[in-house]
């Protein structure tokens, strides 16, 4: 009887500690941004890292952003709160004495996020962090603007923690309208300049293309085929280029000696490149990452190309450079969280 009770107790103990043993956390590779869900492009990640680095340098607060695909990838099947608290403490975010660290955790496929705060804040940040999640982050996430939501959330958290009080509603509204107007004016001016430059290039090209020219054989004036009749002088690849609007071809002929000249003009904006098999601008490529780059190894990207003319299909692999750390990144301070913060879903 005693042996059976001992066996039952051991089984219960193993059942209870099993999840804890299975629980792992993402690798802590960067002090500021660990984007394992690839929600940020390179420029966005660098900008965010610089923002968090300046925050730590100016105010002494360690703020980390972590994105993952799913908590289940790390053996967790429950709520996001215990996962975030455990991860916070495993990484040791924040100063060990002040316990003032901050963590923004985004689990993309779970569609959950949490702002975990250090134990030094107590419960004082729970309500403000909830407002930031509801007002600044979730609306952006719901339209798949993850980078915008993360940036807005980080800015709002930093503003609150540093005491940079948000402007009064009227002032804020006027300021936002002014910024919107300035952005609208700048965008309008840039658009006009782009249109003018494009129009100028097209006008110059048209004048040059239609300029009179003489036959290099007998000196007679060349004539240009009409678009409707020039295909008989073009190769199948050139015809394909014209159908795809990647290259436009002009065919000039001499009525005296039957000399033919073909002049080609590549489109200013086209998604088609030159095929390595047939040489015509009729190929498109689609890339995917085979292996993501880390701070310890390079990554690998594969691009599959498909030609719309010769129907060749081939793939090319390229190395993604290994990530590098800034020499000023430093190390974590050993802070802890007691579970304070706020969570949200989208």
Automatic annotation (TrEMBL):
The chain crosses the membrane at residues 181-200. Residues 331-346 have a biased composition (Gly residues). The keyword Metal-binding does not apply. Residues 33-159 form the TPM domain. The keyword Signal applies. Residues 321-346 are annotated as: Disordered. Keywords: Membrane, Signal, Transmembrane, Transmembrane helix. Pfam families: TPM_phosphatase (PF04536). Residues 1-22 form the signal peptide. This is TPM domain-containing protein. It comes from Yoonia tamlensis.
């Amino acid at each position: 009887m005693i042996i059976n009770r001992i066996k039952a107790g051991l089984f219960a103990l193993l059942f209870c500690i099993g999840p804890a043993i299975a629980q792992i956390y993402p690798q802590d590779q960067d002090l500021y941004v660990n984007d394992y869900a690839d929600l940020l492009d390179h420029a966005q990640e660098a900008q965010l890292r610089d923002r968090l680095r300046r925050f730590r340098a100016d105010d002494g607060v360690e703020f980390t952003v972590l994105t993952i695909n799913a908590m289940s990838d790390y053996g967790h099947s429950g709520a996001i709160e215990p996962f975030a608290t455990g991860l916070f403490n495993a990484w040791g975010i924040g100063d060990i004495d002040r316990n003032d660290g901050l963590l923004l955790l985004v689990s993309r496929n779970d569609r959950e996020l949490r702002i975990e705060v250090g134990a030094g804040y107590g419960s004082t940040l729970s309500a403000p962090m909830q407002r930031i999640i509801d007002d600044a982050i979730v609306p952006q996430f719901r339209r798949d603007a993850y980078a915008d939501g993360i940036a807005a959330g980080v800015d709002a958290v930093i503003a609150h923690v540093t005491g940079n009080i948000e402007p009064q509603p009227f002032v804020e509204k006027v300021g936002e309208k002014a910024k919107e107007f300035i952005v609208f004016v700048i965008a309008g001016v840039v658009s006009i300049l782009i249109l003018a430059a494009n129009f100028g290039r097209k006008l110059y090209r048209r004048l040059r293309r239609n300029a009179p020219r003489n036959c290099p054989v007998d000196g007679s004036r060349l004539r240009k085929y009409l678009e409707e009749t020039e295909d008989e002088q073009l190769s199948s690849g050139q015809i394909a280029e014209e159908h795809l609007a990647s290259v436009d071809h002009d065919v000039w002929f001499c009525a005296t000696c039957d000399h033919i000249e073909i002049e080609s003009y590549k489109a200013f904006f086209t998604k088609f490149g030159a095929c390595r098999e047939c040489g015509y601008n009729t190929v498109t490529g689609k890339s995917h990452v085979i292996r993501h780059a880390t701070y310890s190894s390079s990554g690998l990207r594969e691009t599959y190309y498909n030609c719309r003319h010769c129907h060749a299909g081939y793939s090319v692999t390229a190395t993604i450079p290994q990530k590098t750390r800034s020499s000023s990144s430093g190390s974590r301070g050993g802070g802890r969280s007691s579970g304070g913060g706020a969570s949200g879903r989208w």
